[in-house]
Structure to design on (1529 residues):
């Protein structure tokens, strides 16, 4: 922006000199001659003209195009693999599991999906599960939770919030954790095996810590603390959510990942913004600096198929993805930057040319006057 | 004010009557501490917008809605509180003014002695004692004063600003009761009309019982002492309170004036209705779509999200209604609740600038501009017609006696001497008129024989026929003896409500006939040193319809004479003898010179005649019903068969810079009409001299039309002439009688003629006619904005009628000022008031309104779009706290500061180029096109926010470096963050005048949003049952992608707007934009030429030069030339700059441009 600060000149007012002569006793009603009252505050007065915005156009153009290219390249370097295992098609390995579904099945239905990686996945690999057509953002669903209960409040544990209806109590006993969100916790178990070329199947180590926000895990979600350190005792008198097979204190054997601070629960409790979403399931950590985390080859995904999605035409996916500093694969940002940058630059050039012609034509016309 | 009982209040003298309490009910807009809250709330919820928000709030309380009641309750509470504080403050000011009167100690006669009490305790019927220089605590009927004749003097400066002394009278029967004990024995009944606001009207009567006999006396305004007036020159008076407290005339005059609504407010309401339509449409659409979706169970109630029992069982219709209401609540922010409060604050705070303006301060009278209503600030920028009074408005109203005509002979005053025309007096010592006057005075005493009888009679008539007062304060005391000892023969000062009278009395003093004073019923004059006493029998006061005033006197010889003076049209028809024709010629000559003329006449009564006159006058004055009509009848009975004495010509100087001001207004596209009571010739000559009429103008006349058909014929003739001759400018002169004919039948024809005339002069106008003309223009099909400016009581009706009424703080009292919307000291200030302040206020408020709607469209449209992705479940996109604070905290201050300080163009430029005013005329910034532009921009920005964030997150990838995922609240927060930044920067783009405050609030608002969000999300809030926002904002900011997304979305939103602004500025610049370029630094003023990059201002100068050189259009010499190019409308001006750039003085620039500005 061109133009600069112009403290406006005094406008010819000379304070004091104009007052009624000799009226020492009479207080003049003359207004104060201050910059504020006279609306003469020093001000910067930018004018949006081609001259002032052209540099801005060029700067934006020259900045955005490289940024966009950088973002695009970064995004392109990310490896991502998605496997849909919903099993609605009869050819799908999970077809059988998806057909005979019921919540309280005693024998788990297990299916396996094989896939191969053409290129190795370097560095840490993140394993997500994805759901489609699942409206976690429905208003009735979003508010159906009791944060105070999840924060370890003993009163709320016994007396959950009314927002949890109709998942508030079961057989007169309060549900812990209450509400529709917790009730519908995703309960498929995913396991990944690497098929060695020599025929052996090695299970890949999946880390289940670090998948939830640190602040959620350590501040927002807390297990209730009672006289007993035993979670089972503390949750005495509460009911498990209707759809769960196990109560909340048996989610994991690790006490640091059990009860309300179970990370799978925490991840699920952060409701997604849109009906198609993915949630972080496990992390495959890179353990040696020489070999890739997931080398090229054939893999098997073994699914303990529990979660029904057929009733609402949902889809289930497993996603393997590497991560850059900017997150997962997302070409949109790069493309947007390149597009906007190019338009800016292009418009800048066009304006410059137009103005060169326009300016020289009119000023030469003036010169002849 | 309502009166429940009959129209007459009965009062018993000497004791209080329990009749009065509850007799009148008070219903003025006054709050007390007790009723403030309920009353104020009631008043506020009568406003449609506030009521709407109250309904929304109640709906939220009643049904299950997506947002908590707090989200609309809190802003509503805020708005109501701010408005209540503002109104409370204004009321407190009124109270304070009242308390000064209310709390003052007052002496009241009770049970035979004087009791001190507070003035608010004075009851109707109390007898009150008021001492010298005290103000009256209530409206009192004067009973007695310390003077035997029962007169007293008061000033009504605090009521109407008239500083002259006015004499008020007691009826003779009570005037003798000068002590408390005498008053105690007084038996009387006062009857008076019900309270009325008119300060100058009072009708009542007093019945005094004297020795068993009842005497009835009329009471008029001359018997009434108004509350707030001050006693002068009188030691003490006793009076009986007739109107107290709220019923007093002063209090009634505080009554809320009729509300004028500005054009901006009207279009604001139109916009509101449009947005209400959009709101309803969105809500209906959402409800319908919701039910369309819900028809399938898998969407309505999937296994993971079952309904509660209550939801399952409630009736379908109730559900539907409550769904609709819930959507209404969800989208209700599209109608900005804070718009009204911001507009109120802007108007209230902004109006201070007018009073503070030094350019509107008049040094001589120590008067600054005064704002009586802040509701019309922006209307000052929309004026299309100015109706101005002449006397006191265009002229100084400082009268100087110049000429007179006595008995058919014309005289001129030269050096204090009347010289018959033709005789020139080239006295050399014109420099010392004072001395000369003294000298002349003495010589005249010796040579009084110079004056003939007629001349002397004329001078006596002039010096007796008036209501001038003398300030006694100066005649007694040591100062005077000192003055007299020094030989200064100017001991008396005259106070008159009419400057003409003062000028005439002063003139006769110079001629040797001095008005010494009126003590009691006598008027005393000194004719060449010889003192003469005239008994004042009656005063027939001046009124605007009669246009004359008279006195009836008893001469020292016992003769009863009527002296009358007035407009020639009201005297000549009644003149029976005297040199009527010659005088008429002289009067016309005076008028041609621009002098104000008065004709003087007299009538001698025989004893019988006088008796009848006296009787009829008395009857009329004591009449309780139709007193005014009867008085008028009697007056016309008296003022006839006149003997013409002569005429006077008084000069009224033009105010300074009237011509420039009128010219500036005309350049600004404003039509100026002069409405005056003066006669045709005077008015035309003043019009010419003040530049209202040009010499080159073709002046059309519509005067002295006798009949309807004649008038129509003339109008048609004029219309034809205008059509035939449309190159030349036309001016029109209309007089009062012709006007009333034209308005009666041929309004449209008349309007047609008027509209094609560039200047219109209406002369011989009665006050109501002035208002009629204003209304005629105001209600014409185009509904132009009218402004009326005047200084006298006769302008009040037109000031109240016009869209904007401006009072001149002149010499004719303060009635016009009190009834005006704005008051200024001089006519020339009108130019700055309209061209600068009007322009400022208009662009400020117009942008404020547009921006407010824009930012709320931006705010709520993403919310609407989100419903398509959440099954129309009314899930909010933003957190409740954000919903609540968006309009209150995050985006409120920048626009308020903008609307207080914005200046598109420097005031100097605005004033020197009145044509810039045309850029904003006809409510240009709030017409449909800009409104559509802003609204569409709001929608498109909202789409970019929402879908930008959607594409970023909707691809369901992780945005964080540790692979973790965001939820719906993070999504909403991202949209909200982008929105706050964009909306704030959008205003920044609109801002042309960046003071430190704009910087502070703009960047401060964004910073505040970040700090607040960090704080808000950083705590597990006790008492809240959800912790949705916990660390959401921090997590969002910890994502690199989010930052990049914010930047790209903001740039994408604002970029097209910048391009559009630049293109429009270059391809179709408005004159406002052109003058901005002129005003700015020379370095930036040559932007159209790429050569100007060489000025070194631009960081990309090298690029410009590169292009220049590669195209070889621009050689180096030209690039670095010392020419500074200024861009004006059609051409560039080349002005050699003083020294090299960068900084030639802008003033040189301005003056140079001003010369050229006349061309366009």
């Amino acid at each position: 922006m061109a133009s600069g600060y112009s403290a406006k000149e005094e406008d010819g007012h000379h304070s004091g000199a104009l007052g009624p002569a000799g009226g020492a006793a009479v207080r003049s009603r003359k207004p104060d001659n201050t910059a504020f009252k006279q609306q003469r505050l020093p001000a910067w007065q930018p004018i949006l003209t081609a001259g002032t915005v052209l540099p801005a156009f060029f700067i934006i153009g020259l900045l955005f195009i490289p940024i966009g290219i950088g973002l695009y390249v970064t995004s392109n370097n990310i490896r991502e693999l998605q496997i849909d295992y919903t099993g609605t098609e009869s050819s799908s390995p999970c077809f059988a599991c998806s057909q005979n579904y019921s919540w309280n099945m005693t024998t788990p239905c297990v299916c396996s999906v094989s896939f191969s990686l053409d290129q190795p996945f370097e560095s840490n690999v993140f394993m997500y599960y994805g759901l489609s057509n699942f409206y976690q953002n429905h208003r009735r669903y979003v508010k159906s939770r009791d944060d105070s209960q999840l924060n370890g409040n003993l009163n709320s544990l016994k007396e959950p919030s009314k927002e949890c209806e109709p998942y508030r109590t079961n057989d007169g006993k309060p549900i812990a954790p209450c509400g529709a969100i917790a009730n519908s916790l995703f309960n498929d178990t995913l396991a990944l095996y690497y098929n060695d070329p020599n025929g052996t199947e090695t299970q890949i180590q999946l880390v289940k810590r670090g998948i939830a926000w640190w602040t959620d895990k350590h501040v927002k979600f807390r297990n209730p603390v009672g006289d007993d350190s035993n979670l089972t005792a503390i949750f005495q008198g509460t009911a498990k959510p209707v759809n769960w097979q196990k109560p909340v204190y048996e989610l994991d054997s690790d006490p640091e990942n059990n009860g309300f601070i179970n990370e799978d629960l925490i991840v699920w409790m952060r409701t997604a913004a849109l009906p198609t979403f993915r949630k972080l399931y496990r992390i495959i950590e890179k353990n040696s600096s020489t070999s890739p985390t997931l080398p090229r080859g054939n893999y098997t995904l073994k699914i303990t198929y529990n979660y029904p999605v057929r009733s609402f035409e949902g889809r289930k996916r497993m996603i393997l993805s590497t991560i850059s500093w900017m997150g997962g694969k997302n070409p949109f940002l790069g493309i947007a930057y390149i597009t906007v940058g190019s338009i800016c630059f292009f418009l800048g050039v066009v304006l410059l040319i137009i103005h060169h012609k326009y300016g020289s034509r009119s000023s030469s016309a003036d010169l002849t006057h | 004010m309502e009166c429940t009982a009959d129209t007459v209040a009965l009062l018993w003298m000497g004791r209080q009557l329990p009749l009065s309490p509850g007799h009148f009910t008070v219903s003025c807009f006054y709050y007390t501490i007790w009723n403030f809250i309920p009353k104020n709330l009631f008043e506020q919820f009568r406003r449609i917008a506030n009521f709407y928000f109250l309904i929304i709030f109640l709906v939220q309380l009643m049904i299950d809605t997506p947002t908590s009641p707090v989200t609309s309750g809190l802003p509503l509470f805020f708005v109501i509180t701010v408005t209540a504080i503002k109104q409370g403050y204004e009321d407190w000011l009124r109270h304070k003014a009242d308390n000064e009167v209310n709390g003052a100690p007052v002496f009241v006669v009770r049970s035979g002695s004087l009791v001190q009490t507070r003035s608010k305790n004075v009851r109707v019927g109390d007898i009150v004692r008021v001492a010298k220089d005290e103000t009256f605590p209530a409206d009192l009927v004067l009973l007695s004063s310390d003077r035997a004749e029962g007169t007293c003097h008061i000033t009504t400066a605090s009521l109407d600003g008239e500083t002259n002394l006015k004499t008020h009278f007691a009826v003779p029967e009570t005037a003798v009761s000068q002590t408390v004990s005498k008053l105690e024995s007084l038996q009387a009944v006062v009857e008076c009309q019900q309270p009325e606001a008119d300060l100058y009207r009072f009708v009542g009567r007093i019945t005094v019982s004297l020795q068993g006999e009842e005497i009835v006396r009329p009471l008029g305004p001359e018997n009434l002492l108004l509350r707030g007036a001050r006693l002068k020159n009188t030691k003490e008076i006793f009076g009986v309170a007739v109107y107290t407290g709220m019923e007093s005339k002063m209090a009634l005059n505080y009554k809320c004036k009729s509300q004028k609504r500005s054009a901006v407010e009207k279009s604001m309401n139109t916009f509101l209705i449009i947005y209400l339509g959009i709101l309803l449409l969105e809500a209906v659409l959402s409800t319908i779509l919701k039910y369309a979706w819900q028809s399938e169970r898998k969407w309505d109630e999937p296994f993971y999200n079952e309904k509660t029992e209550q939801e399952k069982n409630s009736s379908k219709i109730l559900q539907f209604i409550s769904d609709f209401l819930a959507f209404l609540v969800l989208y209700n922010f599209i109608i900005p609740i804070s718009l009204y409060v911001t507009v109120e604050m802007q108007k209230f705070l902004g109006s201070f600038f007018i009073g503070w303006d030094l350019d509107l301060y008049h040094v001589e009278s120590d008067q600054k501009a005064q704002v009586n209503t802040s509701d019309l600030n922006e209307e000052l920028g929309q004026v299309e017609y100015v109706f101005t009074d002449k006397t006191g408005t265009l002229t100084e109203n400082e009268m100087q006696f110049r000429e007179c005509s006595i008995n058919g002979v014309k005289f001129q005053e030269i050096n204090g001497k009347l010289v018959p025309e033709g005789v020139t007096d080239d006295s050399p010592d014109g420099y010392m008129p004072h001395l000369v006057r003294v000298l002349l005075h003495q010589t005249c005493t010796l040579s009084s024989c110079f004056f003939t009888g007629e001349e002397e009679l004329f001078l006596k008539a002039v010096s007796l026929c008036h209501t001038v007062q003398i300030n006694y304060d100066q005649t007694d005391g040591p100062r005077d003896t000192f003055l007299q000892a020094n030989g200064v023969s100017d001991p008396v000062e005259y106070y008159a409500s009419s400057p003409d009278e003062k000028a005439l009395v002063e003139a006769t003093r110079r001629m040797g006939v001095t008005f010494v004073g009126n003590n009691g019923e006598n008027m005393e004059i000194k004719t060449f040193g010889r003192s003469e006493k005239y008994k004042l029998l009656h005063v027939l006061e001046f009124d605007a319809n009669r246009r004359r005033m008279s006195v009836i006197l008893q001469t020292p010889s016992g003769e009863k004479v009527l002296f009358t003076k007035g407009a020639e049209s009201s005297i000549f028809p009644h003149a029976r003898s005297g040199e009527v024709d010659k005088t008429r010629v002289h009067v016309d000559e005076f008028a041609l010179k621009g002098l104000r003329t008065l004709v003087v006449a007299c009538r001698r009564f025989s004893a019988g005649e006088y008796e009848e006159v006296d009787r009829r006058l008395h009857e009329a004055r004591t009449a309780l019903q139709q007193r005014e009509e009867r008085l008028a009848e009697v007056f016309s009975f008296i003022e006839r068969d006149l003997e013409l004495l002569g005429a006077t010509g008084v000069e009224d100087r033009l105010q300074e810079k009237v011509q420039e001001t009128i010219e500036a207004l005309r350049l600004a596209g404003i039509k100026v009409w002069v409405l005056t009571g003066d006669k045709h010739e005077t008015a035309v000559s003043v019009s010419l001299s003040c530049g209202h009429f040009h010499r080159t103008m073709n002046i059309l006349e519509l005067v002295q039309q006798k009949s309807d058909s004649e008038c129509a014929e003339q109008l048609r003739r004029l219309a034809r002439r205008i059509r035939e001759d449309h190159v030349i400018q036309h001016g029109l002169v209309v007089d009062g009688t012709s006007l009333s004919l034209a308005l009666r039948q041929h309004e449209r024809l008349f309007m047609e003629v008027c509209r094609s005339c560039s200047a219109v002069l209406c002369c011989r106008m009665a006050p109501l006619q002035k208002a009629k003309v204003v209304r005629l223009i105001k209600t014409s099909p185009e509904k132009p904005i009218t402004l009326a400016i005047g200084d006298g009581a006769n302008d009040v009706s037109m000031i109240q009628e016009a869209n904007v009424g401006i009072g001149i703080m002149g010499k004719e009292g303060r009635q016009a000022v009190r009834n005006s919307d704005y008051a200024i000291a001089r006519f020339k200030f009108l130019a700055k008031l309209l061209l600068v302040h009007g322009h400022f206020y208009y662009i400020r408020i117009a942008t404020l309104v547009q921006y407010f709607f824009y930012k709320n469209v931006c705010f709520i449209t993403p919310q609407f779009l989100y419903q398509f992705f959440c099954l129309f479940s009314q899930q909010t996109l933003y957190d409740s706290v954000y919903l609540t604070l968006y309009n209150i905290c995050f985006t409120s201050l920048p626009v308020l500061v903008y609307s207080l300080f914005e200046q598109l163009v420097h005031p100097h430029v605005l004033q020197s180029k009145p044509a810039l005013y045309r850029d904003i005329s006809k409510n240009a910034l709030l017409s449909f096109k800009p409104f559509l532009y802003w609204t569409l921009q709001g929608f498109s920005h909202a789409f970019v926010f929402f879908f930008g964030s959607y594409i970023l997150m909707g691809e369901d990838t992780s945005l964080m470096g540790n692979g973790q995922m965001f939820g719906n609240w993070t999504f909403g927060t991202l949209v909200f963050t982008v929105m706050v930044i964009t909306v704030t920067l959008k205003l920044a783009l609109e801002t042309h005048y960046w003071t430190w405050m704009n910087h502070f609030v703009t960047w401060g608002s964004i910073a505040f949003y970040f700090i607040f969000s960090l704080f808000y999300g950083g705590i597990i809030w006790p008492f809240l049952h959800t912790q949705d926002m916990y660390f959401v904002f921090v997590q969002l900011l910890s994502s690199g992608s989010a930052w990049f997304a914010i930047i790209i979305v903001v740039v994408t939103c604002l970029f097209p707007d910048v391009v559009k602004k630049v293109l429009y500025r270059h391809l179709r610049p408005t004159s406002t934009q052109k003058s901005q370029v002129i005003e700015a630094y020379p370095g930036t003023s040559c932007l159209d030429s790429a050569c100007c990059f060489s000025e070194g201002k631009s960081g990309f100068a090298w690029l410009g030069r590169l292009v220049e050189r590669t195209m070889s259009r621009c050689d180096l010499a030209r690039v670095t030339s010392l020419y500074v190019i200024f861009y004006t409308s059609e051409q560039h001006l080349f002005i050699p700059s003083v020294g090299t750039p960068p900084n030639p003085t802008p003033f040189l620039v301005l003056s140079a441009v001003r010369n050229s500005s006349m061309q366009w």
In short: Residues 1-25, 360-369 of chain A have pLDDT under 50 and may be disordered. The longest helix of chain A spans residues 331-368. Chain A touches chain B through 125 residues (CB under 8 Å).
